[in-house]
Amino acid sequence: MFSIIKRILAQIINDKRSLAILFVAPILIFTLLYFILGDSGYVPKITVYNVSDTVLTGLEKSADVEVTDSMPELKAFLELQGQDAIIWANQEGLHLYMLDKSAKTSKVLKAVQDINASNIHINYEYETNSENQLDSLSFVFLGVISFFFVFILSGMSFVRERTNQTLERMLMAPIRRSTVIGGYTLGYGILSAIQSVVIFLFSVYVLKLHVEGSYILCTLIMIILSFAAVSVGALMSIFANNELQLVQFIPIVLIPQIFFSGLIPLDTIPYGLGNLCYLAPIYYGCAALQKVVIFGDGIDVIYPWILGLLGMIVVLFVLNTFLLKKYRRL
Questions:
Q1: Overall average pLDDT of the 98-104 stretch
Q2: Domain limits of the chain?
Q3: Where are the beta strands (DSSP E) in the chain?
Q4: Which residues are in the ABC transmembrane type-2 domain (predicted)?
Q5: Whole-model pTM above 0.85?
């Protein structure tokens, strides 16, 4: 028994990746959680109309308040002006209007609670079933779950191709590296595209997930995101010598991306860490899914995120082709 214990400890101590996953990765993840989920100091932006001086003074203590002289068009005003909420008063009492439920609107509700207002009517433009948590975060789960399993499948398959020397024998033939990467990407991409369709159809027709916009557009976004997952899996497999080492990349590659999937508003993340989202394929996919699933937007609104996701795939393809050079034996 002691010889087994000694051998296992020696293997782990000599494996820098295992040591990093045991000690470095948890510290990095908790540090990231501290910066992202800690008190961001975000000050909600609230526009008020026809409210009393008492309400106005109370809101100004914990919010950035803007007073308007005329009642704006609610939805368009919030989307164009970047405000988090609109509060107005009439004979029925105070009214609070917000686009959807998020960390930002939670700050708004906290500011409203501080003024001890009674008889306040709260409305959301994009209301989801309050008894079903899946509806409000469906765009996150659709993107993250699909990306995760495709990353694992493609990455392990690439590693297996290498350890079986299939890839090395292929590269000894007069074949371009870009052709090899393209073939693998399309092959696994087709399988992952089918998976995306199955996941979406199951979510909608079996789990009764509410989708405000186009089903076809949602499926298209998930398919493009799955191709990005294949490319990320191929990239990580180049740095892994076996399947276990590939799994060890999950805390470093996948978990940080989840924080940029829409769980947390990016502009509430302190120290400018929200800008790291542009390096995460999951950000582009989940942002586009949110626009379609929650807001019901069309291709004319989401095309920047789709182009960003396609751009990530191209960059990863070029990078994979370049790094594959180290396995060529001529």
A1: 77
A2: 2-37, 45-124, 133-327
A3: 45-49, 64-67, 85-90, 93-98, 120-124
A4: 102-327
A5: no
